[in-house]
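Work Package 3 (structural annotation) set out to generate three-dimensional models for the target panel prioritized at the project kickoff. During this period the team completed the workflow that converts sequence records into discrete structure tokens, so that structures can be stored uniformly alongside our sequence database. As a representative example, we reproduce one entry of 328 residues exactly as it appears in the project archive.
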Amino acid sequence: MSFNHFDGDGQAIMVDVSDKSKTMRTAVVTARVVMQKETLQAIYTGDSRKGDVLGVARLAGIAASKKTSDLIPLSHPLSIHHAAIDFECDKDAGEIKVRATVRAYERTGVEMEAMVSASLAALTIYDMCKGVDKGIRIEDVALEFKEGGKSGTFHRHDGAKKPASVSFCGWSGSGKTTLVEQVIGLLSARDIRVGAIKHDGHCFEIDKPGKDSWRMTQAGAVVTAISDSRHRAVISQHDCAPSIQQMIDRDFTDVDLVIVEGWKDKAPNRIEVHRSELGKEPLCLGGEGGDYVAVATNLKLDTEITQLDINSPLAVSDFIFEHFLVDE
């Protein structure tokens, strides 16, 4: 195990991120502030002698996110694009859950900014209420979620790391599926366990009419599974389509990476596949460029988004490996 804030001689250093590409980075951190029920009641109803405790704590947390590099010696000064503090009050337990969300389009993650933001909001609650409750405690400051960067997406579920995810999108006819197929093969050759999600704009049918499993579904089964010695398929009926993240959390628990193909919007870590022969403007130039981590194309585009050679699946797979599968 090695810590990346030290060089080979054991000297403290700021990690050099100058050669890394900018991506949209998000981090969510929570903290619990535990107090007497009477103290929380006074905060919740606005009866505290110091007025709006949570309002002041919210401003303190937001301000703190922008001062992180002044407080943590080796952290990078970042341009924060979004910072928010939310509170959940459990009056029966005498607890306030502080939730800090920080987002930036940067070369390095915003976990520390979210950590400092949640901690300062919790400390502000403590400061404003310590006069009436000396026993207030701040507990369980923890990273709940992060995305962006080469280490991919993280959800805290009892310390388990969720698979990284990357999406391929683009105009019809751009060659998305062919490139995805090649990338899956190259990553699998590196012993990366890859899962795939394909969006179908039509109502597909995977079962065969008249078969036993089809008859069970027609009879009203909301989930039908078919299994043999090598395969398993689960057919779920739903009124509202699950989100990409919900599918990843539920169905892809034994993979390192999930590749999503077919969604233009709301897909994680998007790589656009674009060919000049289509005569259409790249999607990544038409909206928020920060929503795209790269574009695989045969053109030279005027954009800061990382550009990859669409005719080099190896370059695309290397990009995914380095940015989403190698720990920072």
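The first helix runs from residue 37 to 45.
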